[in-house]
Amino acid sequence: MSDSQAVSDSRIVVHGAAEGAHHEHLPYQRHHFETYAQQSDATNFAMWLFLLTEVMFFGGLFTAYLIYRNWYYPAFVQASHQLQIFWGTANTAVLITSSFTMAMGVWSAEMRKKGALVLCLVVTFILGLVFLGIKTIEYKEKIDKHHIPGFHYSMQSFTNPASDEEVYKEYHDKPLAVDMARHTEIYFFLYFAMTGMHALHMIIGIAILGFMIFRAQAGAYTTGHVTFVENFGLYWHFVDIIWIYLFPLLYLISRHQ
Amino acid sequence: MNFISKEKGLLSWLLTGDHKRIAMLYLASITFFFFIGGALAGLIRLELLTPQSDLMATDTYNKVFSMHGIIMIFFFLVPSVPATLGNFFIPMMIGAKDLALPKINLLSWYLYVAAGILGLYAMMAGGVDTGWTFTTPLSTHYLNTNVVTTGLAIFIAGFSSIFTGLNFIVTIHKMRCPGMTWFRMPLFVWSHYAASILMVLGTPVLAITLVLVVLERVAGIGVFDPTKGGDPLLFQHLFWFYSHPAVYIMILPGMGVISETVSTFSRKRVFGYTAVAFSSVAIAVFGFFVWAHHMFIMGISNYSMLVFSLLTMLVAVPSAIKIFNWAFTLYKGSITFETPMLYTFGFMGLFTIGGLTGVFLASSGTDIHLTETYFIVAHFHFVMVGGMLMAFLAGVHFWWPKMTGRMYPEKISQLAAIVTFIGFNLTFFPQFILGTLGMPRRYATYPPEFQVLNVFSTAGATILGAGYLLPLLYLTWSLRYGEIAGENPWQATGLEWQTQSPPLTENFPAIPIMDHEAYDYEWLDGQREKEVASVG
Known about the structure:
The structure holds two protein chains of two kinds. Chain A is mostly helical.
């Protein structure tokens, strides 16, 4: 592995304008790095490690989901009927598109196309907001139906499914015994914890995007120094991937029994 | 000119990116928390002087031991060696100018301070009495103390620890100087690498667990509450998935210090360098698969007990490899007994006892008898205080001349090391006996027949307290009045010793080239001869 060699002796600065000028630092190279390549390598590696910690962070929630789903399977099946596949699918499409525009943004930055970069970032920003908007519609419905765990939770939709006409029309669920029906609260808790934690990551991402749009307009990312855009792209794709797991787990699997 | 004198003023410290300055900031802050945690320990021992609860009410006692555990673990032991000595010396040992991410490093310190202030606020505003383990549903439903605030404090402290670990891994991978291959790195760096893996992979799980506890407490949901269909064992699994590896986060950096001091003060290359390096990684890997040994009395299945018993015993193997290799390093070495070496001997003896009693606790049959007694308390204090704290003090004394440019006073510090050793044994050895006799932990009262041993223990704690106050006094004194240390007072081989003390802001006048193995004393002698020749 090249990693077992010391880094700085095996690489030479060859990066756009810096060619042939090894000893002059590029303006964006920080003083404690020997070469620009070393700097961008280190920063990218750090981002991957950070995403690894995020995997472990969400991992705790996924573990809880796995266990309770096995324990309270009927409750989880019926509770998942409360989620609307239409909105879930729409949101998945929105996020995947935003990942595409983000990837295009990184490419534009690498190609030093300022206009394209700003456009991509703006579209990604808007798609992120659309995602949160749709999520709000879904959350609103849960509030209306008293499916907020902890606060005035009602399990009527599960002990007496016929009372919940819209869902009943589609799935004809049989009533659950109270003992099982009450565990739908754990499903909704996990639903809110997982999608909420995901939404929080989206909000942070959107805030950073807003900041990046201004910086991009000022030309900060089209100088050949793309590390920040690149790493933000990694973060954005990661948040996207979390959703790609949440969508089937919460909305799709075992929906039809 | 050096990194301390380069810039003046408070702001130059608070906004610094220099790993050495951040290490000093950390050193000051963890020392502060150590003495708060220590004062709480003093209160515990005072209360246990008599069988009745007379110094404080029993619920106050619960808060005192909980805060002692929380402060010592999250605000002292976890950051102790990594955030101070690791921060200062990892870049120097691998010939780098700084850690890879200086801003993240500073952010980590600010998070630590914010967490510390929040934790202290929780303590002042009524405290928390869950123990450091936050056992559910006790912590989520039955107690009316500051669980949420304390939980958030630990959550934030966790991120400080994640950022430190992340920074170390990136630095060790990407910042090594020419010639510094993996197997030329000092073992201190290896053990920090292993500990960093644990920080990065384990801490996020603690973070999400605490988020769930806080949510459960605030919103009254039942993820961990059996009356609502939740599973308290799930909490235990998630909590110990971090908190068992956390003991290796605490001890591995200490083992790194011991590798450096053992080699330096016996003037021999560490015996079996590669084995010691890999044993650190092995501890990190095995460390992730033993967590359920904290749950033997919590109703996990017999098969899980069997498997986790076995896996736990496996961790003893890499730990023993280290102890044996250090012992073989001493063999036929030219041993000298400066203070860091005295602490090192303390570490080797006490950690061995702590480790071997861990094997008793790993076997589920014995554990069921001994768990939740003072045997456990004695066991982990032997590892954490007898092991880690001794290693920390060994490291602080060893590198003090490099960090400050001044020597500590040798005689009085040797005395402090011996006082600490005696005080420690008097405090904690009786607790092994108390535990086997059946005295449970976490109670303010006990049957009168246990009093004699408890009096021994409290007397020991007093001596131990004096042993810890001494370094605080003479090290502070030495900042101004200590002898000027020079570049390499111990004639040690690490790159950090081949530059001025205290070092320049960029550590070295020019990036060094590593052209020899680690702990190569012949190379060092050769360097000295060259110097003499050039002067002559």
